[in-house]
Write a structure and sequence with these properties.
The complex is a heterodimer of chains A (about 120) and B (about 90). Chain A has five helices and no strands. By secondary structure, chain A is mainly alpha-helical. By secondary structure, chain B is mainly alpha-helical. In chain B, helix 1 (about 1-25) packs antiparallel against helix 2 (about 30-55) and helix 2 packs antiparallel against helix 3. Classes of the chains: A mainly alpha (about 120), B mainly alpha (about 90). Chains A and B meet through helix 1, helix 3 and helix 4 of A and helix 1, helix 2 and helix 3 of B.
Chain lengths: ~120, ~90
């Protein structure tokens, strides 16, 4: 590995470790939360941030290595930032379509689940 | 310093991938498994880019871009299949 300035090396190392910690937090959210609607929160936010930090570190490394910045590396970040909300929206739509159960302490209900549970409430009261 | 940081970061990404794999295998419903697969491909992009820094080669960006595009398209296809029972209507 060729020589880099110590400060730049520290910045790139910090970005890499931040990326690893962020993606680990997202995976822990996916592992530990109670129902699907909570589990969707973890990966959609922190994985994109984690991979974004990795890509910024990589762009900085190759920029310092070769002296010229290249735009094609930022394409992956741009693509991930555009596509992560779309796939999260589709996942939430399919979960609502399948009427997955909510955790019982969740307050408020979406309309798609309320139409199914309303007759049960009227029977109960 | 960068060498140590790359090893620590690879270890953290591997731990994250193992947690995602548990959710893929044990997820109680189909959207859980799809969300975990979505996270798995995003994390594997990060792992491949760190590998590219370690080998000092820019060749791995093309592989990461391909994985990003194919992963997004497969997530959308499986979600459409769950929503409609058909991918292209």
């Amino acid at each position: 590995m060729p020589e880099l300035h110590v400060i730049w090396e520290a910045v790139i190392s910090l970005l890499l470790i931040t990326a690893g910690v962020l993606s680990l937090i997202g995976a822990l959210g996916l592992l530990r939360f109670k129902d699907f609607y909570m589990r969707l929160h973890g990966p959609t936010k922190s994985s994109t941030l984690g991979v974004g930090c990795t890509l910024i570190a990589s762009v900085a490394y190759f920029w310092l290595q070769e002296g010229t910045p290249s735009a094609q590396e930022m394409l992956i970040t741009l693509f991930l930032i555009i596509t992560a909300p779309v796939s999260a929206h589709l996942l939430a739509m399919s979960a609502l379509h399948h009427k997955l159960p909510l955790y019982e302490r969740t307050q408020g209900e979406p309309v798609e689940l309320k139409t199914k549970e309303k007759p049960q409430d009227s029977e109960r009261t | 310093m960068l060498d140590v940081a790359i090893r620590i970061s690879t270890g953290l990404f591997m731990l994250a991938l193992i947690f995602n794999l548990y959710r893929v295998l044990a997820g109680p419903s189909m959207p859980d498994r799809i969300a975990a697969l979505d996270t798995m491909y995003v994390n594997s992009i990060g792992l491949i880019i760190i590998f590219g820094i370690w080998l000092n080669s820019k060749l791995y960006f093309e592989a990461a871009l391909l994985i990003a595009m194919l992963g997004f398209i497969s997530t959308v296809a499986v979600c459409k299949y769950l929503l409609r029972g058909d991918i292209i209507e």
